[in-house]
Amino acid sequence: AKNLGRNRYSYFTLYMQEAAQTRMRLTSDLRTALSHEQLFVVYQPIVELASGDIHKAEALVRWQHPTRGLVSPADFIPIAEETGLIVDIGQFVFEEAAKTVKIWRELYHPQFQISINKSPVQFYDMHENHANWFDYLASLDMPGQSITIEITEGLLMDASNNIIDKLLAFRDAGMQVSLDDFGTGYSSLSYLKKFDIDYLKIDQSFVRNLTAESEDFALCEAIIVMAHKLNIKVIAEGVETISQRDLLLAAGCDYAQGFLFSRPVKSDEFEKLLKAVR
Ligand code: C2E
Ligand code: CA
Ligand code: CA
Ligand code: CA
């Protein structure tokens, strides 16, 4: 038994060492990913449930690694956050999305918007300057109204003035604010009163096993009623089936996003979707 224990221990350390090495390699690879143009942006439609129309798009970053293939954001965003690389990556995604929204506004809809994920680390970073975003939009002659920023509950829990000021600056510039992954964080509802939120995104964990009798359905209904009373629109994430869509529609949900409508796709693919519904 003693031997087995020791073996287990050594397998465990081996595993930990490998995981640490992979992480170190990914970290150094990520530093060059931006300059080597391995990062790109895909777009997923956010659909108005009642009409089926495309309401806006969410921009999501992708990393085409030269040997590993496509690396999931779930694997590299945490590394980007720890190392601070998320600031440069975030700027890249923003600039790509801003150029894209300009084209789509000209071609398809003058009020089209793109949603961009903004990590709490980007708000905390001293060198990250939101003027960068405003200047960039101005250089494209694009209004703030063309952008929605997606933040998570964790950010709002930190009610420091600095964060509030930054959020207000985005709002003052005309951008909308969306609360991502709702229901998974350290939920305290008091921040919904303190901050002016435009959209609340129900996390896909509530949608995954949705049936009419499920507790998840009761939760979705309650979230939607509460949000509407606060004048907040609701987007359901991870909608994969017609039955999920129908339940959400019955519960009064405004918008949905998920593989049922489309996976995240490159901009030219997205333009086909926009053309199809025009
Ligand atoms: P998120 O912001 O909650 O994005 C939604 C995720 O759900 C995306 O994963 C999307 O591909 C996935 N998804 C969409 N519809 C469905 C569906 O019907 N079923 C399932 N199972 N999944 C669906 P993705 O692109 O892998 O991104 C994962 C997370 O990485 C994002 O979660 C976000 O937190 C982060 N992320 C992605 N791009 C960026 C970025 O540019 N900046 C920052 N800061 N974070 C990003
Ligand atoms: Ca998001
Ligand atoms: Ca989400
Ligand atoms: Ca509001």
TrEMBL record:
Keywords: Membrane, Transmembrane, Transmembrane helix. This is Uncharacterized protein. GO terms for molecular function: catalytic activity. One of its GO terms (cellular component) is membrane. It comes from the Bacteria. It is found in: Membrane. It comes from Methyloradius palustris. GO terms for biological process: signal transduction. The keyword Phosphoprotein does not apply. Residues 23-278 form the EAL domain.
